[in-house]
Q: What sequence folds into this?
């Protein structure tokens, strides 16, 4: 055990001192930060044309135009309200303005599927105020043309605008429902983190083993420690490097993004349109909403937080740690075996391919898994040890609806078995391979090594 | 008392036999030359003693006990395939290798400093190995072999790749280790170094032990009863005609007045009889037996086995 610790310490210190470690540690977070910040910036600057479907039962607002803001387009639609709501979900429109016929009040409801950018709501309201149709007021509402100006002045102050979110299931809420998006995002992020970790640090294990072999230092080392100790020490040492790097990254990314948020708050603000409108609307706004729509009762808490709460984070973190460690061990031991079996970098390719394919496959299929987390394909990918570390974690955030507890248990048990099996197989290949030079190795040869009996 | 004994060791790989019933013993404070052509099984035997691989049959005793992991710290090993971590600092590397043998960090640092000073490479402590010349790397490798001060060493082809100066330094250090009481296995092809360094030898060929014994005894076992006679004489002696009943000449040479001849005695004749006969014939300056060199013995033995093997 003490010797494993010595091996771990060497592996760790050597790698941490390398320039490449320093560069990656600093560049990694910058890259991630750039990935987050750039789209936010771009969405601010580029095309943000907003298409608004208008259904006006009063005809008071038949001449809405975008005024100064050329990016807002009002489109008068003939379809029924439910059809239009469906089209909102399909992305044909960004918003739907509905002005119901109502004798006591003037106002409308804006339906959206996604939060609107800041300024859009006030723009709609401004446009409604400016383009109130005088003829309709006189003809339909019987307003005395003499007092029309006073009426309009009074009435425009009273125009109300509400906002409703249309969810996937066509239910309507006063706040956006993120549940599905959040689940998908968390699953994908967690899966990708594991994917990159396995890839990066397993190739580090491979290089370290190859270095020892090509330097011819390994025979001296294995006369002091058992090959299994050396292999395990190496794998653990590099895992610790990975964790150090991950910890530094988390700190750096959060501080970079935090600093950025402070410097450019507008880039990140998802406008709270309700507040915006409320500031401009008179006191009886809420009453109007009640009249306008039978709004279902909901708690005032933020939907985003609510959707996060649908995910069992204790479970997710525990499983993340479990699959992170076992997945890394499974692949790292096999990478170590490959490094021991060959003499140089060029020969590694043929053996690395079968180790790369399963991981790549899951990443390619990840969007399918998030779309159908309860499908048979998702199930099989998440119980087979080679793919389960990523596939299972993608499914976990969807909760019991998608993943039964017995599936998680099965996946964990198979993963543990797979992990032990691969370490066992790898150790056999490793102990023979590291002392073997100048021989072209085939799969048949490797199988022979696995079957050698020692002691 | 033997510090190390292997008893009836056999080791098979998938399609070859590396060792077949090989027993060797290293006496305390002695240097055993482990000889044999390439592929004879020397490296496998050495790996078994180092517990890198295990034998299929037979056992190894170390100081009378069955070989176990605790003995790892009692063996210093300079492998034939030797190298160092290229990117690692030299001093750190030696300390690391010592710690793997169970030496504490502080003690490892102290001893490394001592050896670096002794070999005059102290200024290289913080350099990486790739900056070192080959000769310097070899010094570092030697230090790594002895740093944990074990009572037993294995040097596998220690002189290969060494320049003459370093080879000599190494030889001196190996002999010094023996003086201090260490026992050593010395595996090599270099027969000249065997005669200079070894006390005993064991010859392995085709996974079997061919012969063994103290080096003087082995040489005497293969004596051909050839004696070198140094003499002066008035006139040239025709040795072939001289005493065919006693001996026949093999080689003659002259160096001014002094002449030399190698005479091979018939088996039943003693050297005293020859000297008596010579005294009557020539002015005798020197008389000594010519023993076969280890190189001759090695080649003749291996070739004989090859022939025997081919006939069988």
A:
């Amino acid at each position: 055990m003490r010797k494993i610790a010595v091996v771990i310490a060497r592996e760790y210190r050597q790698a941490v001192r390398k320039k490449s470690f320093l560069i990656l540690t600093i560049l990694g977070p910058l890259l991630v930060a750039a990935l987050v910040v750039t789209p936010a910036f771009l969405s601010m600057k580029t095309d943000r044309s907003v298409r608004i479907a208008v259904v006006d039962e009063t005809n008071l607002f038949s001449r809405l135009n975008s005024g100064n803001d050329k990016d807002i387009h009002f489109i008068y639609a003939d379809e029924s309200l439910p059809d239009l709501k469906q089209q909102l979900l399909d992305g044909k429109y960004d918003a739907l303005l509905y002005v119901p016929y109502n004798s006591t009040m003037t106002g409308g409801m804006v339906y959206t599927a996604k939060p609107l950018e800041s300024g859009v709501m006030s723009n709609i309201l401004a446009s409604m105020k400016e383009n109130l149709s005088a003829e309709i007021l006189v003809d339909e509402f019987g307003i005395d043309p003499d007092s029309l100006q006073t009426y309009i002045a009074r009435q425009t102050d009273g125009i109300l605008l509400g906002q409703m979110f249309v969810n996937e299931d066509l239910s309507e809420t006063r706040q956006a429902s993120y549940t599905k998006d959040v689940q998908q995002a968390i699953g994908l992020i967690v899966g990708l983190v594991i994917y990159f970790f396995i890839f990066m640090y397993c190739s580090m294990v491979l290089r370290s083993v190859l270095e020892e072999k090509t330097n011819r230092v390994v025979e001296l080392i294995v006369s002091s420690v058992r090959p299994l100790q050396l292999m395990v020490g190496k794998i653990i040492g590099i895992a610790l490097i990975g964790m150090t790097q991950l910890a530094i990254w988390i700190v750096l990314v959060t501080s970079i993004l935090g600093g950025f948020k402070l410097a450019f708050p507008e880039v990140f603000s998802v406008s709270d349109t309700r507040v915006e409108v409320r500031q401009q609307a008179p006191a009886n706004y809420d009453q109007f909403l009640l009249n306008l729509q039978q709004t279902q009762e909901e708690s005032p808490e933020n939907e985003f937080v609510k959707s996060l709460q649908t995910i069992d984070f204790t479970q997710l973190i525990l499983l993340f740690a479990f699959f992170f460690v076992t997945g890394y061990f499974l692949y790292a031991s096999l990478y170590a075996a490959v490094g021991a079996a060959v003499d140089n970098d060029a020969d590694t390719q043929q053996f690395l391919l079968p180790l790369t394919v399963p991981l790549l496959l899951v990443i390619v299929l990840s969007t399918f898994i998030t779309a159908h987390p309860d499908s048979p394909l998702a199930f099989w990918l998440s119980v087979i040890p080679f793919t389960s570390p990523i596939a299972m974690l993608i499914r976990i955030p969807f909760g019991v609806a998608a993943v039964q507890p017995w599936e998680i248990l099965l996946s964990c048990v198979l993963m543990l078995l797979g992990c032990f099996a691969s370490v066992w197989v790898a150790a056999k290949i490793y102990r023979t391979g590291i002392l073997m030079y100048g021989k072209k190795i085939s799969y048949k040869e490797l199988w022979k090594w696995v079957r050698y009996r020692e002691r | 008392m033997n510090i190390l004994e292997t008893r009836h060791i056999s080791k098979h790989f998938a399609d070859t036999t590396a060792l077949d019933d090989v027993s060797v013993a290293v006496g305390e404070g002695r240097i055993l030359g482990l000889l044999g052509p390439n592929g004879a099984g020397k490296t496998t035997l050495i790996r078994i003693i180092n517990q890198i691989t295990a034998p299929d049959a037979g056992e190894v005793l170390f100081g009378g006990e069955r070989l176990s992991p605790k003995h790892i710290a009692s063996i210093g090993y300079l492998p034939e395939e030797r190298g160092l971590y290229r990117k690692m600092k030299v001093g750190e590397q030696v300390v690391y290798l010592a710690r793997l043998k169970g030496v504490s960090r502080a003690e490892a640092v102290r001893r490394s400093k001592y050896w670096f000073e002794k070999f005059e490479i102290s200024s290289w402590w913080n350099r990486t190995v790739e900056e070192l010349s080959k000769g310097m790397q070899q010094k570092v490798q030697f230090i790594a072999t002895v740093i944990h001060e074990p009572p037993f060493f294995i040097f596998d082809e220690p002189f290969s790749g060494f320049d003459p100066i370093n080879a000599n330094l190494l030889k001196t250090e190996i002999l010094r280790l023996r003086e201090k009481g260490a026992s050593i296995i010395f595996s090599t092809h270099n027969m000249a170094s065997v005669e200079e360094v070894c006390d005993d030898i064991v010859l392995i060929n085709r996974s079997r032990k061919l012969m063994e014994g103290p080096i003087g005894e082995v040489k005497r076992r293969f004596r051909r009863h050839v004696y070198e006679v140094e003499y002066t004489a008035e006139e040239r002696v025709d040795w072939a005609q001289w005493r065919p009943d006693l001996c026949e000449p093999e080689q003659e040479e002259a160096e001014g007045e002094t002449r030399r001849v190698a005479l091979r005695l018939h088996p039943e004749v003693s050297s005293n009889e020859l000297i008596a006969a010579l005294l009557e014939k020539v002015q005798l300056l020197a008389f000594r037996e010519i023993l076969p060199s280890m190189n001759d013995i090695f080649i003749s033995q291996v070739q004989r086995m090859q022939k025997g093997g081919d006939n069988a």
User: Anything to note?
Assistant: The radius of gyration of chain B is 24 Å. The mean pLDDT of chain B is 88. Chain B is about 35% helix and 30% strand.
